[in-house]
Amino acid sequence: MHERKVNLFVYGSLRDSRVFQSVGGLAFTRKPSKIDDKTLFAEPAFLPGHRRVSPDNVYYYAVKAPDARIEGLVIYDVPASTMTGVDRYEGKRYRRETVHVYTAHGKVEAQAYLVTPESMRKHFGDRFHVNLIHELWLRKRINRFLRKHTRPGERTADAEIERQAERELLGTTERDLVMTHYQTDAMSDYYLEHELDRPRPSIRPLLSEPEAVPYLRSYLALVLRQVLLNQFDEQIQSRYRYDLEHMRTSERYFARSVSLLAALRMINASRNAVDLIVQRGLAMPCERFDLIDYVKYAVRAARSIFDSRVAEANLGRIRSNLQPGLVPLGFELELSNLGPDAVEPRLSVSKASDPVYGGFRYFYDFCLDVLCWKLGGYIDDHTGSGQRRRSSGFLEVAPGRLSIAGELSRPATSDPWLLNQLIHELVGFFEVRPHSLHLSFQLFKSRIEEQNVLPIGFVKCLLALGGGSERKPGGLWVSRMGHDEIMQDRLGHELVFARRSRRNWYLGRDDIGDKAPVQATTYIQQYKFIRLERRANYEPLILCLKGLQLALNPGDYLSAEQLRSSARLRRQYEQLRVWAAEPTQISPQVIGKFLNAAQHGLMIERHRKPAHRLHYIEWALSAIATQLGMFNQQVKKPAPGPADR
Fold first, then answer.
1. pTM for the complete prediction?
2. What are the CB-based long-range contacts (under 8 Å, 24+) for 168-171?
3. pLDDT score recorded for residue 268
């Protein structure tokens, strides 16, 4: 009689063939040519509807989670005698069940060792929870490390504030630990301590650099304001986590978008109190105090002025105004007191100077990239290197961006209202001159290779809406083109109006193939032509661009390759340059086609239906029509002929 055989799905230590052989007496291989009497065949597979967790950092457990899946291996034709050994190895905490897993060849029935929530709760309390509780457990372990290494044994309020200050200066390290733990393997205490045990940053060396001394107060003020914002955000995250999770429409989006907006509103609305706190902090002499002392001061001040009633009111207002759609959205803000001369070679030619921040050359010396991580803050010198180094550039912020070098980010939201509010509050938060805004829209992967070139008339409409129309002697002009801000020669002469780029939202690796999963890579269309202004309302433009993206699927405009290969696009480029320097009216026919295209896209966002309320779409398009009408009135020159259309 033949021994009964089953397929076995493994997702923990049994994925190691040596472990499996020691447990059941048989090995396995993923190469069919090496199968024999002592070696079984296995192939990659995944189990849907479950998530792998390891609350004890020793064993892996599969718990039910509707939107998750576990990567592993399915081992074929495992005999009953081997399964007996596996049963003993897995122990009483697991329950063997019949499941369906998916391989490259289709669905396969298999046995798998699962656990119940009741069993996990009995042994680990709530620590096993796959999302919030699991993350909070790791954060508790980080707290334990700080208690052990920062003023160990002290239970005073000052010691606790110093530990919180240390945590601020470990912000990016904690972020990466949480993401690694959440996405991949369990984390040992040894590894945790190794990652967290870093030298405390110091600003003392700057005191001996005469060229840096004039900027110390400005950077310290930025540090104090940023720590206040971070502490407000942490208070909101810890007190109102349930509310925040229910306002976040998908796990794909940055988890702090709403809490940051609420915190920014609180900081900006309390400008007098915040300014007073900053001034008192700056009274601490740099010769006697180091960076940790200023961070401690800001932590203490944040605790004294945080008002839960104000936080609740802000969250309530945000909740009542949300307008979520389906397209993931993101943005980047560029700020600089030097304007377009912030980066080389224009800086050397103009010899411009920034008396406040010195062109942000000392941004990293004050650990501001760590303190600003929730805002995705870094210094963009337009070299594309993404390295932490002293160089003049734009202060660039983009909530949801987690790594510059790894192009790691998550969309900020799918809500145009929320995106516009974040832009507005961030411009108000930073006491730096706003420069430019980049808006990002996630692309459908199926349409990436089918992207089109925007009609020149539509490009003119967009430049009129967001290109920075300004008065100059003799009339109006489009300043983003007039200052050559969106033209560059790095890859050959091109107009950097819109560009497609790739983003990753996944930090860890797959268990299979040691590479990021396909669904972790997304592509975005980023519009870079927009002038950033303090009082502008970008909500209608966000909706309009989303509609155009859905309706027309536009791509790059105008890349160096496009200009080299197309005489028609070269003519368009020259026409745009002439028009931007001395604009003429945009014809009603072009405006009508432009609005119709945007409306069509917004009406098909949700599977050929609108994702927003109709009155919201009508409001946005009416605002766009009004803005274009005002532009035409200011120009007061007749529209050109059919070539413009």
1. 0.79
2. 168/227, 168/230, 168/295, 168/299, 168/370, 168/371, 169/200, 169/201, 169/291, 169/292, 169/295, 169/367, 169/370, 169/371, 170/142, 170/196, 170/198, 170/370, 171/230, 171/370, 171/371, 171/373, 171/374
3. 98
In degrees and rounded to multiples of 5, residue 70 shows phi and psi of -115, 125
d(CA 396, CA 387): 14
DSSP three-state, residue 553 = coil
What's the pLDDT score for residue 136?
Answer: 67
The structure tokens listed for 127 are 């620590």
Give me the helices (H) in 56-186, please. Answer: 80-90, 117-124, 132-149, 157-168, 171-183
Can the peptide bond before residue 196 be classed as cis, meaning omega within 30 degrees of 0?
no
- Phi-psi bin for 273: left (phi > 0), alpha (psi -120 to 50), beta? alpha
What is the structure's pLDDT at 295? 98
The H-or-E segment that residue 263 falls in is: helix 257-269
Identify the sign of the CA torsion 617, 619, 624, 628.
Answer: positive
With a cut of 50, list the residues of the chain below it in pLDDT. 1, 127-131, 184, 507-519, 643, 645
Residue 47's closest CA among 77, 13, 6, 9? 9
| Bridge-based pairing state of the strands 39-53 and 27-29 | parallel
Residue 322 identity: L
Q: Cβ(55)–Cβ(87) under 8 Å?
A: no
Q: How far apart are the first and last CA of the chain?
A: 81
Closest to 298 measured CA to CA, from 209, 220, 397, 360: 220
Q: In sequence order, what are the residues at sequence separation of 6 or more whose Cβ sits closer than 8 angstroms to the Cβ of residue 392?
A: 338, 342, 343, 344, 347, 358, 359, 360, 361, 381
Confirm if 46 and 72 have CB atoms less than 8 A apart.
yes
Q: Which amino acid is residue 158, in one-letter code?
A: D
Cβ-Cβ contacts under 8 Å for 273 (sequence gap 6 or more): 305
Task: Write down the H helix ranges in 447-521.
Answer: 456-466, 479-482
Helix axes 416-429, 257-269, angle to 10 degrees: 40
Number of H helices, E strands in the chain: 23, 18
Q: Enter the tokens of residue 335.
A: 């700020």
Closest residue by Cα to residue 16 from 63, 71, 76, 73: 73
Q: Cβ neighbours of residue 432 under 8 Å, at least 6 residues apart?
A: 335, 336, 337, 356, 357, 395
Q: Which two tokens stand for residue 345?
A: 């070679």
Q: How far apart are the C-alpha atoms of 157 and 608, rounded to whole Å?
A: 58
Question: What is the Cα–Cα distance from 391 to 535, expressed in whole angstroms?
Answer: 30
Residue 249, pLDDT score: 75
410 and 421 Cβ atoms separated by less than 8 Å = no
Strand partners, 494: 488
Of residues 344, 526, 528, 498, the one with CA closest to residue 436:
528
Angle in degrees, CA 532, 534, 540, rounded to 5: 65
CA 547, CA 545: separation in Å to the nearest integer? 5
> What residues pair up with 521 in beta bridges, in sequence order?
504
Which residues have a Cβ under 8 Å from the Cβ of 199 and sit 6 or more positions away? Answer: none
Q: Which two tokens stand for residue 278?
A: 């900053």
- In contact, 250 and 414? CB cutoff 8 Å: yes
pLDDT of amino acid 135: 66
